[in-house]
């Protein structure tokens, strides 16, 4: 089985790949971790990971610059139901719209838009950078077994505002509630970086690799 991590010129690919390789090895699994920009590899993958660092529009342009990639993602993930994990901007790209430096279309997989962070506490800086506790809103297999004080490492200036609160899986408080994990069906996204979140992140990645939605 192959885990395809999409290389589209944006994302912490080395750290993400190493984290997934470690999770696979420590779980005693035989999945292959493949960093790829090839749509055919995505179509053949068992599960798909879309990382992302930077501005929404730049990430969308990078994805569009890979001929056939958006179509391959739509086919493998939406139509065929392969488990999907979006990380940071990779999560945000699932929205209908990104409102960073203009209005930019997302993939439209989970209704909502990506809007600027506006903490109610003026002492809280933007970007939101550092460790914060996760507050689960519902049970989810990918969060199973995480401790009550689980925390993730965040680096972002924009947040995913879900049109339907039912698609929020966990929140973080940063001058108000922010979606930390979103998902529906075979789709999951984390605003924080599991590949940088030490033991908690590794446990989440292992759960994702074992997830059978």
For the largest beta-sheet, the strand count, sense and barrel status come to: 8 strands, mixed
Mean pLDDT across all amino acids: 95
CATH topology: Rossmann fold
- Rg (CA only): 16 Å
Count of helix runs: 6
CATH class: Alpha Beta
Q: What distance separates the N and C termini?
A: 16 Å
Q: Tell me the helix content.
A: 25-40%
In total, how many domains does the architecture comprise? 1
CATH architecture: 3-Layer(aba) Sandwich
Low-confidence stretches: none
Question: What is the strand content?
Answer: 25-35%
SSE pattern = EHEHEHHEHEEEEEEEEEEH
Strand order of the largest sheet: 2-1-3-4-14-13-12-9
Number of strands: 14
Outline: globular
Structural class, by secondary structure, is alpha/beta
